[in-house]
Fold this sequence. Notes:
The chain is mainly α. It has helices spanning about 15-20, 25-40, 40-50, 55-65, 65-80, 85-95, 100-115, 120-130, 135-150, 155-165, 170-180, 185-200, 205-215, 220-230, 235-250, 255-265, 270-285, 290-300, 305-315, 320-335, 340-350, 365, 370-390, 395-405, 410-420, 425-440, 440-455, 460-475, 475-485, 490-505, 510-520, 525-540, 540-555, 560-570, 575-590, 595-605, 610-620, 630-640, 645-660, 665-680.
Amino acid sequence: xxxxxxxxxxxxxxxxxxxxxxxxxxxxxxxxxxxxxxxxxxxxxxxxxxxxxxxxxxxxxxxxxxxxxxxxxxxxxxxxxxxxxxxxxxxxxxxxxxxxxxxxxxxxxxxxxxxxxxxxxxxxxxxxxxxxxxxxxxxxxxxxxxxxxxxxxxxxxxxxxxxxxxxxxxxxxxxxxxxxxxxxxxxxxxxxxxxxxxxxxxxxxxxxxxxxxxxxxxxxxxxxxxxxxxxxxxxxxxxxxxxxxxxxxxxxxxxxxxxxxxxxxxxxxxxxxxxxxxxxxxxxxxxxxxxxxxxxxxxxxxxxxxxxxxxxxxxxxxxxxxxxxxxxxxxxxxxxxxxxxxxxxxxxxxxxxxxxxxxxxxxxxxxxxxxxxxxxxxxxxxxxxxxxxxxxxxxxxxxxxxxxxxxxxxxxxxxxxxxxxxxxxxxxxxxxxxxxxxxxxxxxxxxxxxxxxxxxxxxxxxxxxxxxxxxxxxxxxxxxxxxxxxxxxxxxxxxxxxxxxxxxxxxxxxxxxxxxxxxxxxxxxxxxxxxxxxxxxxxxxxxxxxxxxxxxxxxxxxxxxxxxxxxxxxxxxxxxxxxxxxxxxxxxxxxxxxxxxxxxxxxxxxxxxxxxxxxxxxxxxxxxxxxxxxxxxxxxxxxxxxxxxxxxxxxxxxxxxxxxxxxxxxxxxxxxxxxxxxxxxxxxxxxxxxxxxxxxxxxxxxxxx
Length: 705
């Protein structure tokens, strides 16, 4: 499917007169001068722009199409007003236009926290997520936006494109129908509708639509490509004619080259196929389907060594695709590598038949439900599947995951043993074992993972088994499991697990060496640095943790989580001035990121700067902070800085209690707030300031800070 024709248009709708409205005459004159100077270039306009507010300057630059500069000015505006929805939204869109989709997503997600049903934000986020190749996430946004604005043609168009890319062709066809009712003159939409119909197997309807389009646009390469794909299913010779026409119009059309190569292969012409498939693989080296086709073609040409090379890469890219594992196993056998061939064929048998790629109708409707409705729907389908077929081990694993999420541990244990008794194969057993491991049911996880390792050993299973054994039986029992992992397959996660086990065994020098190996294996994985720094700090090695975070900050200077962890570690090391300096830098670079404001607020509160802490934490909550820590500290510093705002403090502690009802610190503060309220209501009572205490500052911030 084709990408959207244009970025979100909302920012471009800022009219010049609207910008002038409500301004003083001298400011309006400056705005007019800046806009006029922009026609000659940004450099000439800067003296005028710098006299305006950063927001006004940013909007003028955006309207003129200078999105990089607009983003910089709007970021300055946001630093001055971090919770301003208007600034957040326009900064997000400007970043999208400027080609900075990661920043755009972060800012727009913050805006969505404030207005969850804002259609412009939902659409802009979906557009950005398509650019980031996160199409499932984009589809969720569009499914929420479409019912809110059924007359928005742009939403229906993007919805049709994304559902088609995800293989949900029934939903794609329905979205194209809705779009064409709104935009009936869009011929390219008729073309895409026809292609979606053909992908659903409605070839007569799809071919007719595509032929109608090509009668009006005979030189459209995409139309010939899509008609070629549709006709190759019913008349391969006719399909080949259209694929060749597409390539005559656009010789570097990778998809058409790949399709023609695949068609040649199906016709028993590998000599003709190989050139097209090599062309496509060179330009799409991470496409497992294209590599799989090329590997099969090499086998047909009796070139097994080359087949092994490309099929190995395909298997790495799509480890759950059983068909690729089958082809890889065959290639290894023909190349004289029987041991590895057996492992690939075992993997193929574990995975079972290749799964259908067409998604049934109803995906968009499902995603438009609320999270609670989605969960209820999913639960009902899982329970029905388990009830109808108790021997379906995969359904039992899904049921196990639901039970673990609900905290129903007794029933989860019974279900885990039922899965083990079914002897379903290594893949299913490993999935159940990992679910138990994540939920810290270590003994049960160990049982299932041992069974999975016996059925089909793999690096992931051995590592999970070692970790489960460590927590269930101790480091001395677990380390031999780690030793079973081949040295060539020892990842950063492997060495991090080894660090923890060695430290628990009292072998600190070896643990430090393993930590170095973990970072050597994956020097650009921020989560490894975070886990390693947390480990060092928890074991009283704060200076070493700081040196490690300094190294991480040099290697990953744009990673804000690393910088935030460095700031919190500086605070633990009693280097508060340095921590404050770094937190200010974080807030200036990412003013929309609530985690920086939460951390700063907690540090300020820890040093009894209660009013400044309250302001920082209120900003964090306005930006979307929803952790119990944020609400706890907000309640506490509100009580201490503005006792008359007891209602605000109580509202914050109620939110903290909802999120962490068993936390003793939160319960204690809730009790204190209740006592203060009683004293305020009873004028004869005397209020004593409670002694100041603070929680230990969390080194590793929660995910939702």
